[in-house]
Amino acid sequence: MGETQGHGHQEGHGHAQGSKYGMVIDLDKCTGCGACMVACMAENNVPTKPDETNKLDTITWMRVFKLSNGKAFPEAETCYLPRPCMHCGGKHDAGHSPCVSVCPATATDYSYKTGIVSQIYTRCFGCRYCMGACPYKARYFNWWDPKFPADMKEYLSPDVSVRMRGIVEKCSFCFHRYQRAMDRAFYEGRELEEHEYQTACTQACPAGAITFGDLNNERHMVHKVVNDKHEGHAVLQGRKPFRLLEELDTNPKVYYLSARDWVVKAGNASLRETKPATKKPSGGHH
Amino acid sequence: MEAAYQKIVRLESQLHPEGVQRAPLWQFVLWLGFFGAVLLWGVYAMFLCWFKGLNQTNMNDYYGFALWIWADLGVIAVGGGAFFTGLLRYVIGKDPLKYIINYAVLIGFICYSSALLILAIDIGQPLRGWFIFWHANVHSMLTEVAFCLSCYFGVLCIEYIPLVLENRKLDEIPFFHHTAHNFHEVMAIFAATGAFLSFFHQGSLGGVAGVLFGRPFAYRPEFYIWPTTFFLFTWSAAACGPCFTILVTKITEAITRKKLVKDNVVELLAKIAGWMLLTYSIAKIADTLYWGFVMLPKHGLQITDFYTNASLIYTKLGGVPWILLIEILCSVIPALILVSKKGRQSKPALVVAVLLGSMCALINRWVMVLQVMAAPIMTFDQFALYFPSWQELATTILPVAYGVILISLSHRYLPVFPQERELNPV
């Protein structure tokens, strides 16, 4: 992915935006099973280390955080929060996402055609400035050479390049699936259908907690959920979509749903009444 | 054997500047040997990082910027004495500073070459380092840093070359003699260019943190197109850089057991540094207050969020965010000492002041690198800890050893201190 998808900054100035792919994650449905993480790693050829106990240098494009309301039994509650790359659009959706603007070598770009933030692996020289810029910690550095067990190499996806040591990578919203689906749609001379482009995590979630689609397309479910003001909507069920750290003007494309007040408050510091709900991210090990 | 050694000593002494006393050769070789060993240790760690990758460090995805970036920003800040002294001497016309400008340039040269070396180790794909110039993103502060830093290092080389050519033996060659002379003639242009470039790269380094709108600890509002940290970094480098120049001069004088620069020269530089520090500390306090009480609440945060629920390194001690307090005190105390004539003229007070002044920049850069990374943003995220590996420590000490060696060689063979002969008649 990368250059074929990115259309540079010029496109954002004065041009109408095309698609804007995003997600809605129902936190009340998520059971924390980690299937999304596994599917993501398998789909995107994410390498593993022999010892994965240190979560500070483990690559998890999709990471499930474990949140707690910090209360004792019987009021104790847990919430699992899957966190992919937020594909931030920045202020006014102008493509000024925290990471894209700082990359000194233009190795990450914002596509006004899809709203997806790309990572150009062969151009990244590993300065890690983008990692420092991302408040969601959705970017990961390849501290080691990628190694796969011999038998496993046969299972690597041919659509996704394996990343080398010393560069940054992150969730791409399974952009190769978009390319594949677009190729077919173009060949058949029609528009892309909602079901044709779905991320691996969306399809793997057994609880159906993840909905993916074009936020700009009125026919797509994510558009309906995010823009539907009727609280009686079948998906919303009286809940209001929220995003993580909205007050920072990062303008993420990943929305969350929860009926639990403390979960919504954990999403944004400004909503906190007290200190953070809990701190220990499980990294999917729960 | 003895005769051969004496011959070497005699030949070597012909390289010394005229009319000055130097340490015995065996002593100098031992001195170089010790720091050479430290240097080799650092070089070994450097090659480990290059060949095995950054897994040799203890950096991680929570600390993508760590000890090296602090060291990088730190040496650049304290190396700011070169550009600011050059500005004062050649552009503003503070003539007495001509007796310390050589040393300021040498220290700057060491600091900036070290910074470039550290950057070369710090990037994950060192062979792609040139991408920053080739695929430059003009929106990135790091691009501005790379361009200005490289250009300014070129200027420092030009400023250092005439000093090298003034070596007694090299100076005997007419071409070198005239080259050095002509370089001196046009040095004002390079000093002005250096000051211009430094303004931008020191500022851009401040901008690197200041533009991170996803990191409220570092993020600052814009003034024109730059965040306030842009100006604070330039200001602090201009204030703390001369402090470091004076500090290293005093250390050199202590080690060589000689007076190398007259007091009036040091006091003039100290006075200017003092006023720069005083105005900087006022600006820094104003910036901190605005950040803490206006900007952070706009982002739903409070200043205390960054000084609680963390390790002792950054948290409150006795109800006070100690690292913030020390940072501010390290600018206010030396400023008050240096602006007072009595303070400048007292040797112990002067040394304390320039030491604190140098620490001021180093602590500020530490906070703007490490604490920015450490402070969790998502309310459910953790406050991770980081301690550098020996490879990181060795490669951070490497520039110190390199600096000591280059200073030692320069002092022994080049006329770095024009007043040395007058102050130490043989």
From TrEMBL, chain B:
Bilayer topology: Multi-pass membrane protein
Main location: membrane
Keywords per UniProt: Cell membrane, Membrane, Transmembrane, Transmembrane helix
GO CC, one annotated term: plasma membrane
Compartment list: Cell membrane
Top-level lineage group: Bacteria
Protein family: Belongs to the NrfD family.
Protein's recorded name: Quinone reductase complex, QrcD
Native species: Desulfatibacillum aliphaticivorans
